[in-house]
Design goal:
Strand content: 15-25%
CATH class of the largest domain: Alpha Beta
Structural class: alpha/beta
Mean pLDDT: 93
Number of strands: 14
Largest sheet: 8 strands, mixed
CATH topology of the largest domain: Rossmann fold
Low-confidence stretches: none
Order of helices and strands: EHEHEEEHEEHHEEHEEHEHEHEH
CATH architecture of the largest domain: 3-Layer(aba) Sandwich
Strand order of the largest sheet: 5-4-3-2-1-12-13-14
Distance between the termini: 13 Å
Length: about 280
């Protein structure tokens, strides 16, 4: 019976230095050759899915933590932050002195001082994921980020901003009841960034939309992830796998814990689940 496989990207398909294991590529290609369908399901917008990932031969993607769904080049669903909402977000972040970047399928657009302010935060984020972050920069982590671009936009999937304190996130929940407010930050799920996206968008709802489009059975779904944000995806699928390098909450929610990304965890799980 063919399966529909959903793969988180950061910490699952690639490590936190954006390295893609050859074993993961081999596993995905072998699984698709055997008739299984493989989609990435990620917080990244389409502009952050670089050619090396598409070159694997994926069937499509869920992006923006569920705001965008694509199957074989066809857009199944795309829910956007409105221009009015974007203006509200940008003006509020500016007023608080918080640096941010706007996430769009057309690119990533940084606020005026994001590169300077986010440098240490990005290194802390990568360090928490067990990677050597000593040489990491904002520009190496986000190689195609646009600096000095238009910040009032109508093409946004979500917005991420550097937290000066957790209170910034709590205040964003109160300020934006019309949006989905969350946080992210690395091992232990400690918040380093806040984010704002389309209300009620989750990876789980996007999985539902894709399955309806495919006419596929939920009983044939498998989800792979490494973080708390992946738990709704785990719950939406029949079987779930957490990477060995993942957070404790995600491990507890998964049916199987495999090895870490750099230890060929994806390949070993594909093999164990009979996808190869």
């Amino acid at each position: 019976m063919s399966k529909v496989v959903f793969l988180d990207v950061d910490g699952t398909l690639v490590d936190y230095e954006n390295r893609l294991p050859e074993s993961a590529v081999a596993a995905i290609r072998a699984a698709r050759k055997n008739g299984h369908r493989v989609y990435i399901c990620t917080g990244r917008s389409r502009a952050e899915v670089y050619p090396e990932l598409w070159d694997i031969g994926l069937d499509g993607m869920i992006g923006g933590n569920g705001s965008y769904v694509e199957d074989s080049g066809t857009v199944v669903m795309h829910r956007l932050i409105t221009l009015e909402q974007c203006r509200h977000i940008v003006d509020w972040l500016h007023a608080r002195g918080l640096e941010f970047y706007l996430e769009s399928n057309n690119g990533l657009f940084a606020s005026e001082r994001f590169e300077e302010r986010a440098q240490d935060t990005i290194r802390e984020y990568m360090g928490r994921k067990g990677r050597d972050a000593s040489n990491a920069t904002v520009r190496t982590v986000f190689p195609d980020m646009v600096f000095g671009g238009e910040l009032y936009r109508g093409d946004l999937n979500k917005v991420s901003f550097v937290l000066d304190s957790y209170q910034d996130h709590l205040d964003s929940v109160e300020e934006f009841p019309d949006l989905q407010a969350g946080t992210w930050g690395g091992a232990g799920e400690t918040a380093l960034f806040g984010d704002l996206g389309v209300k009620d968008v989750t990876k789980a709802r996007a999985v539902d939309a894709l399955l309806a489009h495919l006419g596929a059975d939920r009983a044939d779904t498998i989800a792979f992830g490494d973080a708390k944000v992946d738990i709704p995806m785990f719950e939406a699928c029949a079987y779930s796998v957490c990477m060995g390098s993942g957070g404790e909450e995600a491990k507890a929610a998964a049916d199987l814990v495999t090895d870490a990304v750099a230890e060929d965890g994806l390949y070993h799980a594909f093999e164990r689940l009979g996808l190869l």
